[in-house]
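Sample intake sheet
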Amino acid sequence: MFPENFAVLVVGNPNAGMFEFCSFIAATHINADERLVFVETNMSSDNVRQQMQVFGAEAIEAENRDRLALIDCRASRRTPEMDEKSIKVGDTGNLEEIIERVEEGIVRVGGAPVNVMFDSVTPLYMHHDSNDVGKFFSAISSLVKVSGRMTSTVHSAIVPDEQIALLSTIADGVLELRMDEDFHRFVRIKHFRGLRVTPKWVPFDFDRDEESSGALLSWR
């Protein structure tokens, strides 16, 4: 979906459907039998599996074949963890450990070429200095780009604009999502390194794909 050896940053408001967007892209990779590491900082691994299934991808089957590694990077877990398949970050206050778990996930799925989803960077700002988050994003982007591509999300209206601007300078491409007052979704490509783009808002949605019982990301 995105160029190889690329780090793409997806920026949007919390109501823009960022988790669904990431899950859709993840499902696309799984259905194409590509290697995937999915880092989630807000939802449980079961939530990720369920959302991917909505889009026609069997996450558990991919995990059993070591084509998918789910990394649970939530700061708090309210219920006892019975999930033995996912990789858990023991201390989300340790940014180095998050990088180590991502490396572990890449090894688990067989290495390059690999796709890494990071949903999202936003909670890191609640527990870390903004400069440390910027350094972390630079380090993990460099790590993943050696093996494939990374797509990360960050929430505007929560993370200050100057911090999003910093992440944007590190990323190779920036997409923006928004939802209007009538709950219509829009997307635009703000910039992609080496590519000429027109930063124009266009409608998009997740449409049902009757042939695959999944979904299509339709751009109009």
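Comment: Confidence is low (pLDDT under 50) at residues 212-220. Helices lie at 18-31, 45-54, 59-64, 95-108, 130-147, 161-170.
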